[in-house]
Amino acid sequence: MVPLGPVVVFGASNFPFAYSTAGGDTACALAAGCPVIVKGHPAHAGTSEIVAGIILQAVQQLNLPEGVFAHVQGASFEVGKALVTHPYTKAVGFTGSYGGGKALFDWANQRKEPIPVFAEMGSINPVWLLPGKLQTAAADIARMYAGSITLGVGQFCTNPGLIIGIEGEPLQQFITALGQEIKQIAPGTMLHPGIAKAYAEKRRLRYRSKR
Predict the structure, then answer these.
(1) I need a labelling partner for 172 at 20 to 30 A (CA). Which of 18, 74, 111, 204 fits?
(2) What is the CA angle 88-91-93, rounded to 5?
(3) Which range, of 45-59, 101-115, 189-203, averages the lowest pLDDT?
(4) How would you label 162-188 residue by residue, b for 16+ Cβ within 10 Å and e otherwise?
């Protein structure tokens, strides 16, 4: 297999082991015969550095070509832009926010030679609530939904962020039960200051728009 060229993988802010330095994007790129450059996420720079060191040890032990894996750090957007727009880069892997992924996508498509960006950037995950089910299990569904949207302080990409229902008494019973369930859930600490700051800012803007 002829290597396609270097793939740049951006470490995710959540799940430092599953989606970041040694995550699925890195494994898939290496399996396809592509060298990988990982940009560690600043929220867990130390963890990313340790994992990168383990990968480099494995590269040496397996007698793989030198340079098949590289790891860089940097919180500046300019670092990411330089990696995406470099002419040797042939693809990008990203897991994170819509804003971050869209910026990478735009940079990749503004190149003289556009490259693909494989991005999971935010999710809504709609849930449909049908009146027949709500009539018999509104409280149970509210309990499950409350647990799902607050799992990991609401930071999971599986978080169901949109409810679609039909106006009526069953839906109102669900809304009331959901409010009661959420009030019983203790607050938690978000994964890193960046997420907490973004949440506070969006909450402030929404509060302003409702006034």
Answers:
(1) 204
(2) 135
(3) 189-203
(4) eeebeeeebbebbeebbeebeeeeeee
Angle (CA) 69-70-71 rounded to 5° is 135
Please identify which residue in the block is written with the tokens 């700051």: 197
Say which residue the tokens 């890195």 belong to. 26
Is residue 157 annotated as part of the catalytic site, yes or no? yes
Residue 108: C-alpha distances to residues 95, 101, 117, 195 (Å): 16, 11, 7, 25
From the candidates 120, 169, 181, 201, give the one annotated as an active-site residue: 120
User: Cβ distance 131 to 171 under 8 Å?
Assistant: yes
Residue 14, amino acid: N
Q: How many CB atoms lie within 10 A of CB 147?
A: 12
C-alpha to C-alpha distance for 130 and 114, rounded to whole angstroms: 44
DSSP 65: P
Reply yes or no on whether 120 is catalytic: yes
Catalytic residue among 157, 167, 169, 181: 157
- Helix, strand, or coil here: 167? coil
Cα distance between residue 170 and residue 120, in whole Å = 35
